[in-house]
UniProtKB/TrEMBL annotation:
<feature type="compositionally biased region" description="Acidic residues">
    <location>
        <begin position="192"/>
        <end position="205"/>
    </location>
</feature>
<dbReference type="Pfam" id="PF17659">
    <property type="entry name" value="RADX"/>
</dbReference>
<dbReference type="GO" id="GO:0003697">
    <property type="term" value="F:single-stranded DNA binding"/>
</dbReference>
<dbReference type="InterPro" id="IPR012340">
    <property type="entry name" value="NA-bd_OB-fold"/>
</dbReference>
<feature type="region of interest" description="Disordered">
    <location>
        <begin position="187"/>
        <end position="206"/>
    </location>
</feature>
<protein>
    <recommendedName>
        <fullName>RPA-related protein RADX-like</fullName>
    </recommendedName>
</protein>
<dbReference type="InterPro" id="IPR040893">
    <property type="entry name" value="RADX"/>
</dbReference>
Length: 571
């Protein structure tokens, strides 16, 4: 049990009788602190948990609160989700006058200590988020707790376990700002272990592996309608090398109950051909972080299906965690017969000079010294079902010494959050499988589904096959000849950046927008601004009369009375 001085215990347990009435929430007068915020997609049970909030979007948020003595996981009531979307309700802030109501739960946290009847599951229905200055004035705070993960959960002495979404049958959370990266301890860095499988694996690793079926044989058997391939599970062993690895693809929808709605596509090659391998659901949790381009793997107990999504693959190998449970093993190259050893991945490096005359749509690889790393930004988009979500990206500027033109990369999330956090100026960065984009006279590079990023400090360059290629060696020679001070003087991070540059005339602007400028006026502009979310990037076209112009020197801050003189800052 929590200590008697526990604010959460005193507030929620003392008012248990009143809490059984949804119309009578319990209010905590003391400060509570947010130690984590989680996001996940709702499922068909949403209308049961929130019968009056069916139009408040597809995402739900759970927050973990502490009073310094224990932790409690609660769900943010949908009307409050705007606080999370604008990053007002975030990790580290304090809440005052927090109101809680009891709620049904889809699944309890494995370590929350909540009773099986769900009596200790709550919703945060209202709260006042206070700033850091006001929090310091009142003293205390989560900063006084050295390690909040050591605090026990509400109504228990246990502080360990894996936290799950409260109001949906999902096994993992989503990152707050995109659907592409992974987050949480559920994503394994090491492959799963099983006692029975380990014994078999140890016996097999002691001998040389040989493939019992090839890509060409699978394709021929499937296209000819052979029952051994089309009618069930392929139990033979397929050995191949991963040459491309896609980003994580999240397909969770609010009308589906899938617990782990992820898939990953791998391009697998053996001496006979290339095939698309699709990892589904919990297989992604167990293997996505473990598998990488260049790995030699063996597959068995999989299904072969028609591929309808790709123009380059006619079949696909479907790998599931059940029905059947596929077997995956990463093999050392020494354990594979030379005639079965797949070829190594190939790279097509272009330097900044060669990129100048490459046409739109060309796929290539680049290496360069990172001299500018932009701030993360987000743009809205929609999936095939019309559901709106955000894509997160940042701009990178790479230099390689082959020309005076830098390589500009619009880098979207690549499901490598650890790598993207290390993209600091003066790092050596390799971007594989990027696409050339041409807009008028301007050119930049952009992700593809299979883009991978390799960066200094992650141990990538020393183990990758590209390190011996001539374009890479030429770049290293140029890098060694550079003066450190001159390079440091060109290094930039963050800030506001637009590329390609916006049009300078209304005529050009209308040409790009098919003759419809889409001017916003007054209340329309205000409504669009209020709709903006954290890190969201949008471009507005406004039509207004200039009533005042104020000049100030660079670096000088001018304070405006916004109530008297609404202003627009021109960058």
């Amino acid at each position: 049990m929590a200590a008697p001085v526990c604010v959460l215990h005193r507030t929620l347990i003392r008012s248990r009788g009143a809490l059984n009435q949804a119309s009578c929430p319990s209010v905590c007068r003391d400060l509570l602190y947010v130690v984590d915020v989680h996001r996940y997609t709702r499922d068909p049970g949403f209308s049961i948990y929130f019968p009056h909030s069916v139009l408040h979007g597809a995402d739900l948020y759970d927050v973990i609160l502490t009073d310094g003595h224990c932790r409690l996981q609660v769900t943010v009531d949908p009307p409050l989700r705007r606080l999370v979307e604008t990053n007002v309700l975030r990790r580290g802030v304090a809440l005052r006058h927090a109101s809680f109501s009891p709620a049904l739960t889809a699944q309890l946290p494995q370590s929350s200590g909540a009773s099986e009847d769900g009596a200790d599951s709550y919703r945060l229905v209202s709260a006042e988020v206070i700033g850091q200055d006001e929090e310091d004035d009142q003293g205390g705070g989560v900063s006084q707790v050295d390690d909040w993960t050591s605090l026990p959960w509400f109504r228990t002495m246990d502080s360990t376990g894996h936290v799950l979404p409260l109001r949906a049958n999902r096994t993992v959370f989503l990152p707050l700002w995109n659907n592409t990266d992974f987050i949480g301890a559920g994503w394994r860095e090491a492959p799963p272990t099983d006692d029975d499988d380990d014994d078999d694996a140890d016996a097999e690793e002691a001998e040389v592996r040989r493939a019992s079926v090839t890509v060409a044989e699978l394709r021929t058997a499937f296209l000819s309608g052979h029952r051994s391939v089309t009618g069930g599970v392929v139990r033979k062993q397929l050995i191949g090398r991963i040459v491309n690895k896609s980003r994580l693809m999240y397909y969770g929808r609010q009308d589906q109950n899938c617990e782990c709605p992820y898939k990953v596509e791998l391009d697998l090659v053996d001496p006979s051909g290339l095939v698309c391998v699709v990892l589904w659901n919990s297989v992604c949790l167990n293997w996505y972080r473990r598998l990488k381009p260049g790995d030699v793997i063996s597959l068995s107990r999989f299904k072969v299906k028609q591929n309808y999504r790709s123009n380059t693959h006619d079949i696909e190998v479907s790998v599931n965690s059940r029905n059947p449970r596929a077997q995956i093993c990463v093999l050392p190259e020494s354990s594979v017969l030379p005639e079965d050893l797949p070829p190594a991945p190939e790279f097509t490096f272009y330097n900044s000079l060669q990129l100048l005359d490459r046409p739109h749509g060309v796929i290539c690889d680049v290496i360069g010294l990172l001299t500018f790393s932009g701030r993360p930004e987000r743009i809205r988009t929609k999936d095939a079902h019309g559901v709106e979500f955000f894509l997160e990206y940042r701009w990178l500027r790479l230099e390689d010494g082959s020309s005076d033109y830098p390589v500009m990369v619009k880098l979207f999330s690549t499901s490598q959050p650890d790598v993207q956090r290390q993209l600091h100026p003066l790092s050596v960065v390799v971007c594989s499988r990027v696409k050339v984009i041409r807009v008028d006279q301007h050119q930049y590079l952009r992700n593809t589904t299979y883009t991978q990023v390799y960066c200094t400090g992650q141990g990538h360059h020393s183990v990758m096959g590209y390190r011996k290629l001539h374009p890479v060696r030429d770049f290293i020679r140029w890098l060694r000849s550079q003066d450190d001070r001159q390079v440091q003087s060109r290094a930039l991070v963050g800030g506001f950046f637009v590329y390609p540059p916006p049009p300078v005339s209304l005529e050009t602007f209308m040409k790009h927008h098919r003759g419809s400028p889409g001017f916003l006026q007054g209340a329309e502009l205000q409504a669009e601004i209020e709709r903006l979310c954290y890190r969201e990037r949008r471009t507005f076209c406004i039509q207004a009369t200039v009533t005042m112009v104020t000049h100030c020197r660079a670096g000088q801050v001018t304070v405006f009375n916004s109530s008297s003189f609404p202003c627009v800052l021109l960058n």
